[in-house]
């Protein structure tokens, strides 16, 4: 395994040096880890996020470290803005070799109580953002005809639904499905575009703290679950930089299934499959 990891690392540096990458949701958390790691590999980086100030600060940090990096404020739920992002990447670096559709948000609460506007935002950002990315970038990648990579963020939560986070479960299942469809479509077209689904476990980030925005969050069971997930990330989550290192290694190995934390995904896959095969109803985990 160590040998494989080293081979992946060598491949990542070799494969990706000098390539251009567009990363959405790059201001903080997992996206900022992708940006720092990509820059360290010698990639030319376009950072996209709706939060402009931290985005510009990160671009400046990367440039100071010697990287080519540019910040482009982008709302991924706006198809026009994502098309403009692709135009800008073309202007800056002559095209996009790698697209990382990473931007995503969380909402917690009972599915019928999460406000409709929050549901809509989840659908439009978490999954609509990926669709907008594909619409803007895939035709350009196909036309260029050079080797390219598309990474879409799902989650360990894209394999098993959780209570009190239905919009998250729904969008992360959707991202898994649409990424698999896209991968098959690339095979049909014989396109040199490698499609990968990224399925993080617990990674240190802002996603739970920024989810505490709606009135449904004050319910004790919702606050308890949010706190539990935040603690899991704080105490056991890997850093965004370590996450990025594992992801780039696996992508360099040519994998569709990019699983940075197999210890968190693998133990749940077999019981889940057995639950479905045996037609057993879904059950709450012990602590509920
Ligand atoms: N942190 C984890 O444990 C974890 C686990 C599994 C999957 N993920 C996934 O990883 C991705 C990144 O999450 P994170 O944990 O780093 O969260 P985060 O909240 O730290 O970062 C998300 C980033 O997305 C940006 N963003 C939000 N709305 C946007 C929009 N409309 N347009 C552009 N950018 C927007 C935010 O400003 C922020 O910078 C998400 O897709 C998330 O679902 C995270």
Secondary-structure map with pairings?
Layout: H1 2-16, E1 20-24, H2 29-40, E2 44-49, H3 52-64, E3 69-73, H4 79-93, E4 98-101, H5 116-144, E5 148-153, H6 166-189, E6 193-198, H7 220-236, H8 240-252, E7 257-258, H9 262-277
Parallel strand pairs: 1-2, 1-4, 2-3, 4-5, 5-6, 6-7
Helix pairs in contact: 1-8, 2-8, 4-5, 5-6
The protein binds nicotinamide-adenine-dinucleotide.
Nicotinamide-adenine-dinucleotide binds next to helix 2.
Question: What does it look like?
Answer:
- It is a single chain.
- The chain has 288 residues and is of the alpha/beta class.
- It has a single domain (2-259), classed as Rossmann fold, CATH 3.40.50.
- Helix content is 53%, strand content 12%.
- The chain is built from nine helices and seven strands.
- The chain has helices at 2-16, 29-40, 52-64, 79-93, 116-144, 166-189, 220-236, 240-252, 262-277; strands at residues 20-24, 44-49, 69-73, 98-101, 148-153, 193-198, 257-258.
- The protein is globular and about 50 Å long.
- Mean pLDDT is 94; it is low at 1-5.
- Bound molecules: nicotinamide-adenine-dinucleotide.
């Amino acid at each position: 395994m160590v040998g494989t990891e080293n081979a992946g690392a060598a491949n990542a540096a070799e494969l990706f040096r000098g390539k251009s990458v567009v990363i959405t949701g790059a201001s903080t958390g997992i996206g900022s880890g992708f940006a720092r790691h990509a820059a360290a590999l010698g990639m030319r980086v376009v950072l996209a996020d709706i939060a402009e100030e931290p985005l510009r600060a990160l671009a400046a940090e990367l440039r100071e470290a010697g990287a080519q990096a540019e910040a482009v404020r982008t709302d991924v739920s706006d198809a026009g803005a994502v098309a403009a992002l692709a135009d800008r990447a073309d202007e800056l670096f002559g095209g996009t070799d790698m697209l990382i559709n990473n931007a995503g948000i969380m909402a917690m609460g009972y599915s019928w109580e999460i406000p409709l506007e929050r549901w809509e935002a989840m659908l439009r950002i978490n999954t609509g953002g990926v669709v907008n990315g594909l619409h803007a970038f895939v035709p350009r990648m196909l036309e260029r005809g050079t080797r390219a990579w598309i990474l879409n963020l799902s989650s360990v939560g894209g394999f098993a639904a959780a209570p009190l986070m239905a919009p998250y479960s729904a969008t992360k299942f959707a991202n898994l499905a649409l990424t698999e469809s896209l991968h098959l479509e690339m095979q049909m077209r014989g396109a040199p575009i490698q499609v990968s689904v990224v399925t993080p476990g617990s990674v240190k980030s802002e996603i739970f703290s920024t989810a505490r925005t709606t009135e449904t969050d004050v319910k004790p069971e919702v606050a308890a679950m949010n706190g539990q997930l935040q603690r899991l990330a704080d105490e056991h989550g890997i850093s965004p930089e370590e996450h990025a290192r594992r992801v780039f290694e696996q992508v360099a190995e040519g994998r569709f299934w990019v699983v940075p934390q197999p210890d968190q995904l693998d133990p749940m896959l077999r019981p889940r499959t057995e639950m479905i095969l045996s037609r057993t109803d879904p059950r709450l985990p012990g602590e509920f």
